[in-house]
């Protein structure tokens, strides 16, 4: 099982013919993702040959040529696509996501960073009204190891397994995937670190709680905002599976944006300590480092397998 993305997902790539789109489409194909088309109105009717050998993905090879469509709607009609990955520049990201939502696609993974907040507010609200789930913006995407990879997460640092991972940070997503590679993951979701994102920690917690093959949830947060405090309240009221957490930013200076646009602290609000305290108050074990977080996760799985009397 998995959340949001499976081997049956059919993926379009908006911006596939650009430099970043080409590079990461090739990586997604090599991971076995069923990329069924790209979207570029100026190159509609063409195709791109990625020449992915079967030996690279181990899942039956990849198409020798991926068609380019003039719109998301055209791509969906031709292929049955239900996921789009957005690699377009920030100035055009809003229009790209609105187009995808208007076409009725189920999942839009917005990799683009640097999107103006007012654009993110507009397209996340509109997509929700149209039934389209947004992952991101400014995110690494998501991966269900051994099944599908939508975005820029490295596919070769972990394997399928029993842990669900949700993270604001791309780099920490990769590190925890590697630290826990011997156990493996059901799905890893990088939700992005901007002030406005389409899918929250809570959304992922609820999905992992409902997934029978996810036995443990790892939640990575960071300074800024109150998303982790709200997640703690949700865990208290709705999550029965063990949750292990990590909060980035204990050494960040007050009042400064650090890395992500949403990682800004004002007074005691949004501090790493406040977030850790909120999570620990509802029984979440919070690591002081990524390595310690991985050890806590392994311990929690061991306790789940052999509960103490």
Tell me the span between the first and last alpha carbons.
30 Å
- As a percent range, the share of helical residues equals 25-40%
Overall pLDDT level: 90
Query: Which radius of gyration do the C-alpha atoms yield?
Result: 19 Å
Number of helices: 10
Principal-axis shape equals: globular
SSE run: EHEEHEHEHEHEEEEHEHEHEHEH
The multimeric state of the shown protein is: single chain
What is the makeup of the main sheet? 7 strands, mixed
Percent of residues in beta strands?
15-25%
Assign the structural class, choosing from mainly alpha, mainly beta, alpha/beta, alpha+beta, or little secondary structure: alpha/beta
Q: For the largest sheet, list the strands in their spatial order.
A: 3-4-2-1-5-6-7
User: Uncertain spans, ≥5 residues at pLDDT below 50?
Assistant: 55-61
E-strand count:
14
Structure, explained:
The protein is of the alpha/beta class and 309 residues long. The protein is 36% helix and 21% strand. It has ten helices and 14 strands. The strands form two sheets. The chain has a seven-stranded mixed β-sheet, sandwiched between helices. The chain has a seven-stranded mixed β-sheet with strand order 9-8-11-10-12-13-14, with helices on both faces. β8 and β9 form a beta hairpin. α4 packs parallel to α5, α6 (170-179) packs across α10 and α8 (227-238) packs parallel to α9 (272-281). It is globular. The model is unreliable at 55-61 (pLDDT under 50).
